UniProtKB/TrEMBL annotation:
One of its GO terms (molecular function) is hydrolase activity. Belongs to the peptidase M20 family. The keyword Calcium does not apply. Keywords: Hydrolase. This is Amidohydrolase. Residues 30-118 form the Peptidase M20 dimerisation domain. InterPro entries: Amidohydrolase (IPR017439), Bact_exopeptidase_dim_dom (IPR036264), Peptidase_M20 (IPR002933), Peptidase_M20_dimer (IPR011650). It comes from Trypanosoma rangeli.
Length: 242
């Protein structure tokens, strides 16, 4: 078995959070380049404005989530970068670049959505007389917690390690973990260690906040969990010597 620990600044210090089965989502990263024809801002009729086209793409892509996929398996689609122009007030650029992520908990949805997205991008570009390029990075797969490995984590948290409280997550998270690649080869379990610092502001209680702040004392509980897991596996394998 293999185990992974990830800190969580949003959870109280010392808590262990986990669930059996799908724990975290798959992720596909995409890039879209809209190719128009630039010119002067006073004569947009002589241009093919990639800014306007890309803006339409951003809003229209959300219909994939809300109108093409069932609510119970709906992915999260986020455009996280929009670049276009040279910084001039009066110049319409030739191109606009969009970048973002698609996150899914369902493999069939993960396979289907990219085609739906490209259909929208292609249709909008064609309607405006523009060209486009769309590319994808190698996708991340879902993080799946093996039921037996999950049982070991829960047992260690509840019975072996003092000072921690176990929280079973009711649903999977839409975040992504590289641990998924390990768990696809070896039965494993990823769990979260709460490191929330109650003395900080609300904005600090988020792993990716610029004000990220943790309760470092909680890291000791993470070490205890790892030691406890080693001991538990040794007992399961009959190699524990005390």
């Amino acid at each position: 078995m293999i185990f992974g620990l990830h800190v969580d600044a949003a959870s109280p210090a010392g808590t262990i959070s986990c669930k059996s089965g799908v724990m975290m989502s798959a992720c596909n990263d995409f890039d879209i380049v809209i190719k128009g024809a630039g010119g002067h801002a006073s004569q947009p009729e002589l241009c093919t404005d990639p800014i306007v086209i890309a803006a339409e793409v951003v809003t229209s892509l959300q219909t994939v989530v809300s109108r093409r996929i069932g609510a119970l398996t709906a992915p999260v689609l986020s455009v996280t970068m929009f670049q276009g122009g040279t910084g001039s007030y009066n110049v319409i650029p030739d191109t606009a670049h969009l970048r973002g992520t698609l996150r899914c908990l369902d493999r069939e949805v993960q396979a289907r959505v990219p085609g739906l997205m490209e259909g929208i991008v292609s249709g909008i570009a064609k309607a405006h007389g523009a060209q486009y390029e769309m590319s994808w990075l190698e996708p991340n797969i879902v993080t799946y917690n093996d039921p037996a490995a999950y049982g070991v984590v829960r047992n260690v948290a509840e019975r072996i390690v003092d000072g921690v409280s176990f929280v079973e997550l009711p649903t999977a998270m839409m975040g992504v973990a590289d641990f998924s690649e390990y768990a696809a080869k070896i039965p494993g379990c990823l769990f979260w260690l709460g490191v929330g610092d109650e003395s900080g502001s609300f904005a600090s209680r988020h792993n990716y906040s610029s004000r990220h702040r943790i309760n470092e004392a909680a890291m000791k509980e993470g070490v205890k969990m790892h030691v406890g897991l080693v001991a538990a596996l040794s007992m399961l394998n009959g190699s524990f010597t005390g």
